[in-house]
TrEMBL record:
GO terms for biological process: glutathione metabolic process; hydrogen sulfide metabolic process. It holds the Pfam family Lactamase_B. GO terms for molecular function: hydrolase activity; metal ion binding; sulfur dioxygenase activity. InterPro entries: Metallo-B-lactamas, Mito_Persulfide_Diox, POD-like_MBL-fold, Rhodanese-like_dom, Rhodanese-like_dom_sf, RibonucZ/Hydroxyglut_hydro. Residues 268-359, 375-463 form the Rhodanese domain. PROSITE patterns: RHODANESE_3. Keywords: Hydrolase, Metal-binding. Gene3D superfamilies: Rhodanese-like domain, Ribonuclease Z/Hydroxyacylglutathione hydrolase-like. This is MBL fold metallo-hydrolase. It comes from the Bacteria.
């Protein structure tokens, strides 16, 4: 028997490969199928099952393409109603995989169809659970992401409490927990950086698994402090439930190299959005007017999903040479399938064609500190970190303006004023500056190194835990 965790850091997502005696199962695959077919081919195994723990909200699963390519059966737990052929397993149903078995445990709560897959070895011993978004390391799944649920998040949290107490916690302490996500995912709020643990240890340290916790206490703990989920989450869940275009077709379309003239024409005709995916050092020096920066070398796909409201939005790309496929793939993972191509030759070709460019002014933290100390009342500092980060510690006098909600709250800013912008390290603030500049804001200064550098200056810092009021 072989178990392999296939972890994708930019999404903080874990898929799994299980193989026994020539048969394999894939749990919660990402959009692209080749990593899974390659693993099975290497082992000389046939993929028999594609096991989905639930209708995922934070990424588009590869179950449909993988099933078409391999003939594997897609399996969901009870109550799932997908718009395609799948086996809807009953609670407690046993699936044979080579010499091992997988038991389907219906564990509603994160969503009503959520299920956990219990792996038993050749001797029938419980070995591991693949818990999806039901149980994380040091956390549990949030109960507010169900597709078209008529239940409140409190109702779902109550179901989650019962699922954990009656299906998960009675299992042996040496059972290994393989969750669907790790730290950085918006599917929970307190996930650890570790991506596996024993159930026994989780019973000791996970706040949601404390044996004396009442259902009311659990519901309060799980629902308290939930940040609003990214806008693309419900849209991805619908795609996973209803179906989607083949990834190969999405990749073929998005991998089209465009000359400068073709790029400009596609931009005009399709009313496309231009996303510049270069690094945060290169972008501010020269970029295409009205393009926005979302660098590939960070949490690229989640930020595309958070900031681009329409999954149908035509997109044109500016990428570092050789990384075009990576960019298109990562966008497709979160349902952005309408990439029209990329600018061949990048910004160099654009400038060689005598096309205009713009830049964003940047400033060191030390220099900003001197300016702020001289005239704090007249210096507008936008902190685009999340509310929880701002509440933990921030520069006294800063305005919290989370990047997550920039499209919703942009009207609160004044285009005639100058803004200094920072985040934690400089990535999110540059995204914010690029969006604001594309929307007509003229005077924007990005603070290099963000709060990581600002906190080392003489600027006064403060913190509070009350709800943050925008502007």
């Amino acid at each position: 028997m072989k178990i392999e965790q296939i972890y994708t850091g930019c999404l903080a997502e874990a898929a799994y490969y299980i193989e026994s005696n020539g048969e394999a199962a894939i749990i919660d695959p990402l959009r692209e199928t080749q990593p899974y077919t390659d693993r099975a081919k290497y082992d000389g195994a046939k993929i028999k099952y594609i096991l989905e723990t639930h209708f995922h909200a934070d990424f588009v699963s590869g179950h449909l393409d993988l099933s078409k390519k391999t003939g594997a059966t897609i399996v969901y737990g009870p109550t799932a109603q997908p718009n395609f052929a799948a086996h809807i397993a009953s609670d407690g149903e046993v699936l044979q995989l080579g010499n091992v078995t997988i038991v389907v445990l219906h564990t509603p709560g994160h969503t009503m169809e959520s299920s956990t897959f219990l792996l038993r070895d050749e001797n029938g011993k419980d070995v591991a659970i693949f818990s999806g978004d039901t149980l994380f390391i040091n956390d549990v799944g949030r109960p507010d992401l169900a597709v078209k649920s008529d239940m409140s998040r409190e109702d779902l949290a109550g179901h989650l409490y019962d699922s954990l107490r009656h299906k998960i916690m009675p299992l042996a302490d040496d059972v290994i927990v393989y969750p669907g996500h790790g730290a950085g995912s918006a599917c929970g709020k307190n996930m650890a950086k570790e991506t596996t643990d024993t159930l026994g240890h989780q019973k000791m340290v996970n706040y949601a698994l404390q044996p004396n916790m009442t259902k009311a206490e659990f519901v309060q703990a799980v629902t308290d402090g939930l940040a609003e989920p990214p806008q693309y989450f419900p849209k991805n869940a619908v795609l996973n439930k209803m179906g989607y275009e083949s990834f190969e077709e999405v990749l073929r379309r998005g991998m089209k190299p465009l000359s400068v003239n073709e790029f400009v024409q596609a931009w005009d005709v399709a009313e496309a959005l231009v996303i510049d995916t270069r690094n945060k050092t290169e972008f501010p020096m020269d970029f295409i007017p009205d393009s926005i920066f979302i660098g590939i070398d960070d949490m690229f796909a989640p930020w595309v999903g958070t900031l681009v409201p329409d999954l149908q939005q035509p997109i044109l790309l500016l990428c570092d040479a050789g990384r075009e496929e990576e960019v298109v793939t990562r966008m497709a993972r979160v349902g952005y399938d309408h990439c029209l191509g990329y600018l061949e030759g990048g910004i160099t070709a654009w400038m060689a064609a005598d096309k205009p460019t713009e830049s964003i002014q940047e400033m060191t933290a030390d220099r900003f500190a001197r300016i702020f100390e001289e005239s704090p009342e007249e210096t507008l500092l936008l902190d685009v970190r999340r509310e929880s980060e701002f509440a933990s510690q921030h520069v006294l006098g800063a305005i919290n303006f989370p990047l997550d909600f920039i499209n919703r709250n942009m009207h609160l800013l004044d285009r005639n004023k100058a803004y200094f912008v920072h985040c934690a390290g400089g990535y999110r603030s540059l995204i914010a500056c690029s969006i604001l500049k594309a929307r007509g804001f003229k005077s924007l200064i990005n603070i290099c190194g963000g709060f990581d550098m600002l906190k080392n200056t003489r600027l006064p810092l403060t913190q509070y835990h009350a709800p943050v009021t925008m502007l």
